[in-house]
Model the fold of this input.
Amino acid sequence: MAPPILILRDIDLTFGGTPLLQGAEMSVSQGDRLCLVGRNGSGKSTLMKIVAGQIEADSGEIFIQPGVTVRYLPQEPDLSGFTDVLSYVEAGLAPGDDPYRANYLLQQLGLRGDEDPGHLSGGESRRAALARVLAPEPDILLLDEPTNHLDLPAIEWLEGELKGLRSALVMVSHDRRFLSNLSRATLWLSQGETRLLNRGFAAFEAWRDEILQLEEDEQHKLDRKIVREEHWLTYGVTARRKRNQRRLADLHGLRQQRRERVRPTGNVKLEVTESGLSGKLVVEAKDISKAYDGTAIVADFSTRIQRGDRVGIVGPNGAGKTTLLNMLTGVLAPDDGVIRLGANLAVASLDQRRESLEPNTTLSEALTGGSGDRVSVAGQNKHVISYMKDFLFQPEQIGTVVSALSGGERGRVMLARALARPSNLLLLDEPTNDLDLETLDLLQEMLADYPGTVVLVSHDRDFLDRVVTSVIAPESPNGGGGRWLEYAGGYSDMVYQRGPAQAVEASAARNKQKPAARSKASTASKLSFKDKHALETLPGEIEDLGTEISALENTLADPNLFGRDPNAFNGASARHGSAIEELAKAEEDWLVLEMRREELEAG
Done:
């Protein structure tokens, strides 16, 4: 095992009297791929800034091996003071770094280098900042939400670029697919403390849930012991005074232990305020088109959206996703074609750029609209502080102005506002930006239970797979031509339905592959011997893995296992996570092969 080039030990940090980090630790060796996970406000970005030297910890030890280079990608990069983007990127180079790499990365990220930093969009600023930290190829690369404001082609390009780097990576991201594809270890930051899983993010959530269940069991035991001691104190037979006093002191100690036990900071409670049902038909578009300055954005597109549908719109930046969304919802009239909206539509929307939040408005005013201290949610009249707590805000933040909130907090404010409006049609433009994984889980559950219709724009592949029933994407992977197609299912289903030729075309556009790759993929007309064998053996493997997972879950259900045999618990926990990964892969492989077999037999 390679020696660490970065060590953080016993890091403590307090903001405003509240401990944020308490004994946090991190170790990074050459070539590590570490993802840092935790709720919004748990201190992930703060820990990264401590490593980058932007924040000083109250106490603790920080060791960086001499000569090791560190680069940090912040959530909100500052390009002020630079005349153009190229000079901003080149300022991140050290003596001896390849100056041509700055130009190469800017070109790959769709920038020329002569852009004025003061006129860049959020996505363009993020691309410039990525080029700046990637260009030196540092020993340690700290990435704080690197996929925010990036479109799908850019995210997939970034994954490929990072896989080829020799740099050690420490990543914070809400994008599950991105973390699963890149990470090899997971550092969980919760209540100021860190816990390490020596597996990638794909195994994290099952491991986390097992730990939380174990802690809940331990808390239950503590509560039961307190009840027994209180019963003895009230009804027990008086014995020697010293023994009584000692046992009473023990009871006080147990109560103090329960009071001091660090509990989670709360749960996001997502409820949506429903309007009356819309008509069965929500939107019908027939041969709609839109062009700007002679360039087709949408050309002859037709669709029919019915009540209860969840429709995702994907594509590269500039392809026309927002234009299409505005046309489908009647905000923008088409140049040609017909849009018909259903009856009794009540629309609520989540704005991608948070532009509808006035920076000088307080949190209370943003949630109530400036009208008193009550919010009507799901038919209930709630006090604004109660509604704030549902979204993990503290009561003392009631007067905080929007400009002082973090990106994640602003995201939660916008989500709270959207869900409080009576609606039967939700329009969500990049709803996953800046939300933590727990909030994303609850948002997905809420959308699954929502009786109305959802139309969303997103670059989050995992979120699309979990939520939508169909995906609208440009016919060309690069988004040109204005032709849009609708695919049944989620993002992964869309990728499969587009077929090998489309997949190779998209890959060629990004990586400039040789034409032979597409020819070979598109001319395959039968299953290989290996694929036929896999089709025959995978069902048995899937059944065996399911049996193994059930047995492991029974083992881990023993509340005394960890205390009796920690190694057995850790071994079963690790195998449980890997078995779940293997099962998911086996099921996905079988499904792809089976669909391929049916496609060949049909044609």
